[in-house]
Write a structure and sequence with these properties.
single chain, alpha/beta, eight-stranded mixed beta sheet, 10 helices, 8 strands
């Protein structure tokens, strides 16, 4: 059972879903599951393994059901943090637990920075923070090449370049940049160009997320228990390396989770992970 709510603000209407028992009937604090650019629908499989407690999912402003009214198109972690803070306040259950995935992990780190009393435990799974990498300049160049491919030839070319980048093992070397353009057909992607250039992942809208600078001192001072998570299959590629780098900045080792960057997915997006094993590990970490 789930109930959908809308927080109406002057800048955006933030839509969120409350699954399972009401917060005041849950044996543990509400568990927020946050993605970006993925919306609430991506957490269906993972949430189903936490039916014994309140789970909250939401659509970040400007994505899915959360309609922006401010005329902006960028996705800024500090702004998203204020939206999540508003959801936490609306729940009225005190400090929550948070599982953040990808850009959602970055937004969750921004939330702890701005509102440390909101979160008891944060599990930040593979935040794609370019600046945590030893080859940060090369990684930024690789990201720019993805955006260039999208602008030049559209969605299929852009996503093919994205998949090639995020599957490259190790640092981005001259060998990587010498590769021919990735073939969309190889990844089952469309080869025609539909003319659109508004994908939130493949444009400059993602830059505030990937270039977000951690406030290490603020995070260290927060009462929140922060766990940086990395997929066992993705430790050598961009998102996994970024997780390891983020953990190192926070003075910890990344906690290994089953599967890959989308390890909690059941295959509804063609990127199946191991949601049952992933949920078991998440439960162990949250209760640990």
């Amino acid at each position: 059972m789930s109930t959908t709510y809308t927080l109406e603000t002057p800048e955006a209407d933030i839509v969120y879903d409350v699954h399972g028992p009401a917060p005041d009937e849950s044996p543990r604090p509400p568990l927020l599951m946050i993605g970006q650019p993925m919306t609430a629908e991506g957490f269906g499989a993972l949430a189903s393994h936490f039916a014994d407690r309140t789970v909250v999912t939401y659509d970040p402003r400007g994505l899915g059901r959360s309609v922006r009214k401010d005329g902006r198109e960028d996705h800024v972690p500090a702004v998203q943090a204020e939206d999540i803070h508003a959801v936490v306040q609306a729940l009225g259950a005190g400090a929550v637990e948070v599982f953040g995935s990808s850009g959602g992990a970055v937004a969750a780190l921004a939330l702890v920075t701005a509102h440390p009393g909101d979160v008891r435990t944060l599990v930040a799974h593979e935040p794609p923070l370019v600046r945590t990498l030893p080859d940060a300049a090369a990684a930024e160049r690789a990201w720019q090449a993805v955006r260039d491919a999208y602008q030049a030839k559209g969605f299929g070319a852009g996503m093919a370049a994205f998949f090639a980048m995020t599957s490259w093992p190790g640092e981005f070397t001259d060998a990587y940049f010498a590769l021919p353009p990735a073939d969309p057909a190889q990844f089952g992607l469309p080869t025609d160009d539909d003319g659109r250039r508004n994908d939130p992942l493949l444009t400059d809208r993602t830059l505030p997320v990937t270039t977000y600078r951690l406030d290490v001192e603020a995070l260290a001072a927060a009462p929140t228990r922060i766990v940086i998570a990395v997929g066992e299959e993705s430790r050598e590629v961009f998102t996994g390396r970024a997780a390891v780098g983020t953990a190192a900045l926070l003075g910890q080792e990344a906690t290994v989770f089953p599967s890959h960057h989308g390890g909690f997915l059941s295959g509804e997006f063609g990127y199946a992970g191991q949601p049952e094993a992933f949920a078991k590990k998440l439960r162990e970490v949250l209760e640990g």
